[in-house]
Amino acid sequence: MVVAVVLAVTGSLVYATTSQGRPSGTEGTVPLGTVVPQPVKVSTDEGVAFDLEAEDAIYASQGSASAKAAAEFLAGLLRKPTGYSLPVRSLSAGDDPEGIVLSLGGKNAVTKKEGYQLDIDSKSVRIRADDRGGLFNGVATLRQLLPVKVERQQKMAGPWRVQGGRISDAPRYGYRGAMLDVGRHFMPVKNVKKYIDTIARYKVNNLHLHLTDDQGWRIAVKSWPKLTEIGGKTGVGGMLGGYFTQADYKDIVQYAAARGITVIPEIDGPNHAHAALASYAELNCDGKALEPYTGFAQSPDGNLCVDKDITYKFLDDVIGELADLTPGPYIAIGGDETQNRSKAEMDTYFGKVNKIVKKHGKKPYGWMESAGSMPKKGSLSEYWAPGISDDELIAAGKAGGKVVLAPSSKAYLDMKYTEDYPEYPVGQTWGGTVTVEQSYDWNPDTHLKGLPAKAVAGVEAPMFTETLFGIHQVEDLAFPRMLAIAEIGWAKESSHDWKTFAPRLAAQGPRLREARVNYYLDPGVPWPMGS
């Protein structure tokens, strides 16, 4: 273990060296205050730093599966770039080892849900929390405090030095989500995992996976195999389709969980269901199967028949299989763009689907159009545009329901950054163009006038893929705006300031580059040289 010492000599800093001749002190460390999202409280110990060494281990609270999972994740992040073995060991009560320590509960643990305390001195790095989410959030912060080269997937030379001090932190909102549409254009497992890797860096804790739409059905259902045999073969513009086997889906769910993220699967309805209606004739009102749809816009024919019993047998089977594969509490049930539906149709559909979801031990999560047809107390709805179902959403919020804010003019990641960029062919503008500063410039508590602040569950950044043809284009539009939404979801309102956020955001550019993540160099952000 290297002990970091700073000596003051004639007004200059002179760094002590180890017997191996390596500098210690705080030279080259990342300032604690540069983290994204911004922590609640930061205290720096000037002249103190921790150096990770080859003989170090990572310790996890004995008997805690959550602490061990977070420790294994951290070890997996560090082993390749450092070249160190970093074994994960159990931490018994009363132990005070050197190295990296992850402890659940106990003295100095932050008791607010998903909160953590990170203490760094010359001998150890300690992350304390009261729950699994808090430990993973502490790991995400530590990752940003290590040198940028930690993002390399190859062995790099040290030192691996972290500035000394303390961070006490907890989220503003419990729900911090990213929505990824694999229905319009299919995205293979490896690309979904890459997206998960990136959002996990910034304490996003939910991945809303849009599995079905008019253009494609992307999850295998054993009781209805033609959903993928027919509905899984198409995509927007006639592109090749694809789908996840149930093993693929379980792999994604487990991969996300190992990074502190819960997957929320979505089966869209009663509209946006053309792929299902092309797969099974009996789901159509006239009993005739539709031809597969590959258009860009919403299909005018992709409407489930809400008066047929087979519709709900179908949904019961699909939701039942999906619930068995999904450890998280929610199943998303769609509801978007249903303006052609009567109130009676919406009440019938969502009344029955709500019961189906609950029958399988889950909670329903719908787009805002469903809010007026769901039980208000205990509901979770997603706001995406003004003037659609505002009154119903506000009424649900006042009655005890919760709302996730995802305004298209701020949080929709598939909107173009600017129209003055002819080299940028992808993205949409129906919600306006959205710069990074615009995606940061809003307050979820006051965005929807009349919605009580206590009803705001959190924020989400949706990524629809009608115009996108691969992970590189998805990343270009998602990043760095996803970081702005993550900041809004985590940091306390009083710290909200573009002038201080922009430099912290800019410092993430080299990290994204080292991780081989595409991102847009928004001219309003002071990116460092080489970003």
CA-CA gap between termini: 33 Å
- What is the count of distinct domains? 2
Mean pLDDT: 93
- The CATH topology of the largest domain is TIM Barrel
Q: At the first level of CATH, what is the class of the largest domain?
A: Alpha Beta
Largest sheet: 8 strands, mixed
Tell me the strand percentage band. Answer: 15-25%
- Globally, the shape reads globular
Keywords: Glycosidase, Hydrolase
Domain Glycoside hydrolase family 20 catalytic: 173-492
GO molecular function: beta-N-acetylhexosaminidase activity
Enzyme class: hydrolase
Record the SSE blueprint:
Layout: E1 2-3, E2 6-9, E3 12-15, E4 41-52, E5 58-61, H1 65-82, E6 88-91, E7 99-104, E8 116-120, E9 124-129, H2 132-145, E10 160-169, E11 175-181, H3 189-200, E12 206-210, E13 212-213, E14 216-217, H4 226-229, H5 246-257, E15 262-266, H6 274-279, H7 309-325, E16 330-334, H8 343-359, E17 363-367, E18 380-383, H9 390-398, E19 402-405, H10 436-440, H11 444-447, E20 456-463, H12 471-478, H13 481-490, H14 498-506, H15 509-514
Parallel strand pairs: 5-6, 5-7, 7-9, 11-12, 11-20, 12-15, 16-17, 17-18, 18-19, 19-20
Antiparallel strand pairs: 1-4, 2-3, 4-10, 8-9, 8-10, 13-14
Helix pairs in contact: 1-2, 3-5, 7-8
